[in-house]
Amino acid sequence: MGIRGTTNSDEMQMVCVVCGNPAGLMCQRCGEPYCQDACQRLDWQRHKYFCIIMPPLVAYRPIQQPSKPISTKTVEMDASKLSLGETPPKTQVMIESTTSTPTTTVEPTAVVSKKEELKLSDNWREHLLPKGEEFFECRVTFMEKEGPIWVVHVANVESMERLTDNMKRCMLSQKLIRSQNVKENTLVAINVHSKIHRGQVLTVRAQKEEADIRLIDYGAVVVTPFRDIYDVIPKMAEYKAFAFRAKLPTNTGVQVNKNLTLRLLGTRNHDGVYHVHLKPKMTIPLSLPMEMLQLNPEVKVLRVFGQNPTANESQLALLQINVMEHINNDLNASLAGKPGQPFTGPFPEEKCTIFVSARTSDGFRRAFLLDRIVGPPPTFLVYEMDEGRISVTSELTRIPSELLGLPIRVLAAQLKDSIPKELESCGTDLTVKFKLDNPPPKEKLRAANAALLARGEQICMARLSTFLGQISDLGHKIWRDPIEKDASVIITHVVSYKEVYISSPNSKQYAGLFKRLESKCVAFGDSSDVSIGCIVLVASKMTGHFRGEVLSVADGKYNVQNVDTGAHHQLDLSALRKSCRFLDNLPVSLLRVQLKTVCNIPDAAVPPNNAAINLLHTLSAQEEILKLEREDSSTSIVDLLSSSGDQRSLVSRMLPLMFTPAPEKAKEAPPKAAPTPATLDPFLLEPPKDLPPLPPSPPNSPTPVRSVDNKQLTDSAQKKPFERYFFNALPKHLVPLGYKVNIILLNAGGMPETGYITACFLQNVKVAEEYQTFLNLVANQGACDHNAVPGYVPNVGELCLALFSEDKSWYRGVCQEVKDNVAKILFCDFGNWEYVDVENLKPISQDLLNGIYATKCYIDGFDKSKNFAALESFLIHKSKFQCDVKDGPEPDSRLITIPNLQDILNKPTA
C-alpha cells in the first residue's frame, strides 16, 4: 500500500501512491489515493491482491478519524463456507486512519481470524497409508540426504494429481489469496514451477520475506518467497497428506519416480518415519533349465525359421519344453478381474530385458517387451516367451510374483547340420540330450551343446540357448515365420502367370503400423548411411509406407524390395528411414511360390495379356483369402484353394484362361444401375469451423501398396500411352482419433445392413475450400474430351475418373469389378458406388492423386436387430455431428461412438 503524507494542518494532504502527485481520487473500496485512473491501472498488478475486481475511482474525501490514534476495521472471511472450487467472497482490508500527529502508516494486510484457523481440518497432518499388512506398490517422490525417503501409494497418485490440478484452477480463477501472515506449522498453498502444492510451514524468515515449506504430498522442502504463498481454502485441509516418510535398510537401487513394493513394519517412530520392508525382487531365470531337461528331456518343435541362403544365416528352430503347461492358465486366473497396470515409463533405447504380461488373442501371456509405438492407442511388440511367437498388443501388465521365478519354456536351437526331415514340420516331439565336457554351473548357463533325438535315434546336433525375442541375437536379419501346409494366405504380388508371392492375412495390418512408425524411425542423414542389404522403412506419397530391404543403388536411385509383399521399387534417399526394433522383429511370412501345372507351360505358348494373369491381379488387389495346398514345406510348387465352401483350385480356374487373350469389351447396353443411396453433393455441406488441428494420431493405411503400372492398352489400334495409378498408393487423411471429434457425413446409405457410414474430417475452412477446389478440378478434367482413351478398361483396384449417373458429373473412383463392359465403381471421395459403362470411365492423371478424406466409420454398438434406420435418417438430416473416434476393425477404418445412440434408435423412423 502507498504511504500517506500528513501536514500539521487539520486538512490532510494526500499524494498518489504511483507518481507522488497530489491525489484527488481514491479507491472506492479501500481508500487507496490516486491522481488519475491511469495511475490506478498501472498499480493494479499490485493492488489487485487487496481489491478483487478493480473498483471505480471516486472523489477523495477525508477519512473519518477514529477515537484512537490507530484503529482497524476488518471484515472476517467466513472460511467455513468455502470449499475447493468455490468462489470466495470479496475481502475487505484494513483501512488506516491518522490523527493530526504524524504517525508511521502500515500497509494494510488481509487478516485471517483465529476463529477461521480453528475451522481448518487437521486431516492434512495425518498420512494416507495403505490398508492391511500386505505388500503394496508405491512411487518414490523424494529422497532425503540422510536416508529416509518419501513415497505415495500408487493407488493414490491419480487423486493427488487431481487435487494439484484443482488447486491450480483455484489460483487461476483468483480463489486463492496471498497469505499476509505466514506462521510456522500451518498449512499453506505455494506456487512451485507453475504448480500449486499444499505445504507445511517449517521456518519463517521475515526479514528475507521467505519461508522453508515442506510439500506435504511429496516430501521435499523448498525455500519459498512470501509472494508465492497463499492461504488455503478449507477443502484443501480435509485431505490427508498423500506422501509419508519411510526408512529402508539400504537405498541401493532406489530412485525418485521409481516404483517400489513395500510393506509397513509397525507404526512410525518419534521422527515421523515408518520402517518398511522391500519385497525381494523376483526375476525370470534366464539360464537354461538344465536340471529340468535332464529329468524331463522331451521337447516339441514350435517353428523352424526360414533361411535366407544369400545372407549366410544359420538353421534355427524354437523348441518348447513339455513341462509347466499350467503357466498360461495360472497367469490368466491370477489376472482375471484385475485392472492392468499400464506401461508408462520411458522405453530405453539401449538393449534391455523388460518382463511383462501381455494380453494376446489367446489371453495373457508372459512376454519380453521388444518395442512400442506411442499412442493413442499405445501399441507394443512383445515376444511370448512360453509360446515362441511375436505379438502386437495394446495392453500390458505386471507378471504376478508367483509366476516370475519359473523358467522360460521356449529355447532356441541353432542346428549344426542341415534341417532333418523330423524338423520340417511343427509339432514334432523330440528328446534333448546334453553334450557337456564339464559339469554345468548352477547359474548363468545360457547356452550348451546338445543332441536332438527322434524315437531314440540322434537326428542332429544343436546349440541350445536362451532366446529373448530379438532375432538379430541369433544371427538373422528378419524374423521369418514359415507358412505351413493348409495355412490361409493372400496373394501380395504377381510376378508372372506362373509365379506369385503369398503371405499370411495377418500382414494386412502392417501398413497401419508402418505409418505410425514414421515418427519413430529417423531419416538417413547421408547416402553413405544406407548399406546394401539393410532393412529400412519407406515413407513415400506415391508408394505409401512399407518395410523394405535395400538391394542395390544406381544413379541416386535405390532398388528396394518390399519385405512383406515382394514388389520392387526405385526410390530416392528422401523416402528411406532407418529401422528400429519394432520394424526388425515384426514377423515376415512372405513366400515366393510357383503354381503347379501352370509353371510347366512354356512362355511362348501363353499370350502376354491373357485372362489368367488378370485373374491373379484381381485376387491380389481384392486380398482374397486362399488356402495353401502343397505336399511338404520343402517344395515351392503349390496350389491355392478358394476359401469358400467348394474350395475350387486356382490352377483349375486359370487353365481355361491361359491361352485366351483378355476379352475385348463389346459395346453392349449396360445393365440397370444397382440401387445406390442418394449422395450428398460434395461440400455443399457447411465446412467445420474452428476445429482443433489433427492430433498426432497414427491411423492405419492400406495393405500392400501397389506401384505404378506402365502397361499400355493393346486391344485397340488407337491406343494411347498412359500410366495406371492404384487406390492403395494414395495417402489417406482419416478421421482423427479422439473424443468429441466433429465429422461430416458423406454417405449413410445401406448403414442399417452394413453397420458403417462414410464421413470425413476437415481441419478448418481453408482445407475445406482447397478440397472443394480440387473436386471442381476433377469434374472439369472429367468433362474434357482430350483425355479420353478409346477402349480404356481399368484394372481392379485402379483409380479412374467416372461419370455419376444422377448429376452427370465426374468424380474419382476405384474399380472394384469389371464384367460385360460394365465396371463397379466406388466413388472414393464419398463412399457410394454404382455400375458404370466403361465408355464413361477415363484414366486419372497424376495431378489428381491427392489424398482421400473419406473414411469408413463403423458404428459402435451396431446390431441388425435394432432400428438403425432411425439412425440413418438422423445422420442424413444432421450432416455434421460430434462423436468419439477409435481405430476401426479394418485397415483405414474407424469405430465411432455416437452420443445418445439409444435415444435415436428408440425414435420411430419417418
TrEMBL record:
Residues 16-51 form the MYND-type domain. This is Tudor domain-containing protein 1. Residues 793-851 form the Tudor domain. It comes from Drosophila gunungcola. One of its GO terms (molecular function) is zinc ion binding. It comes from the Eukaryota. InterPro entries: Tudor, Znf_MYND. Residues 675-686 have a biased composition (Low complexity). SUPFAM superfamilies: HIT/MYND zinc finger-like, Tudor/PWWP/MBT. Pfam families: TUDOR, zf-MYND. Residues 663-711 are annotated as: Disordered. Residues 690-702 have a biased composition (Pro residues). Keywords: Metal-binding, Zinc, Zinc-finger. PANTHER family: RING FINGER PROTEIN 17.
